[in-house]
Write a structure and sequence with these properties.
Elements: E1 5-11, H1 15-26, E2 35-37, E3 42-48, E4 56-62, H2 68-76, E5 79-86, H3 90-99, E6 110-111, E7 115-120, E8 129-135
Parallel strand pairs: 1-4, 5-8
Antiparallel strand pairs: 1-5, 2-3, 3-4, 6-7, 7-8
Length: about 140
């Protein structure tokens, strides 16, 4: 139904302030410069964690005070935002999860940073937001 973990996302107040800690403490360097996703009102950067180019940490920073990520940050502070799993067939995975009564935030895929994505509500899986991605690459 789902594949391996694609990334773990951490919400931060500022990528510019958080990034040096990841670089100094763990030697993690971005695979590319931070970029903005205006549709989701975030700035993001991926930090590869090993030889698998998809095993990464994603730092996400809100761009707008009223965005979902900004509300999350205001309510919970910096920290774990979501865990993302890969899937080869996102529409089929969503249909199967709906049949199993998973509470979906996205009933249909939407554009993400690197392919189509959909989110499963934290109420479904013990308070953790889950993202599914069907990667373009």
């Amino acid at each position: 139904l789902i594949g391996p973990i694609d990334h773990v996302a951490v919400v931060v107040r500022s990528i510019a302030e958080a990034l040096p800690r990841y670089e100094v403490l763990f030697g993690l360097r971005p695979s590319e410069p931070p970029r903005e996703m205006p549709v989701q009102a975030v700035r993001l950067v991926f930090l590869p964690t090993g030889p698998d180019p998809a095993a990464r940490i994603e730092l996400i920073e809100p761009l707008e005070a009223e965005s979902g990520v900004a509300r999350f940050l205001a309510a919970r502070g910096e920290g774990l935002h979501h865990v993302c799993f890969r899937t080869d067939d996102l529409p089929a995975t969503l249909a199967e999860l709906a049949a199993r009564e998973a509470e979906q935030i996205d009933a249909t895929p939407r554009a993400g940073a690197e392919g189509d994505v959909a989110f499963i509500h934290p109420r479904t899986l013990n308070g953790v937001l889950w993202e599914l991605v069907q990667r373009d690459v």
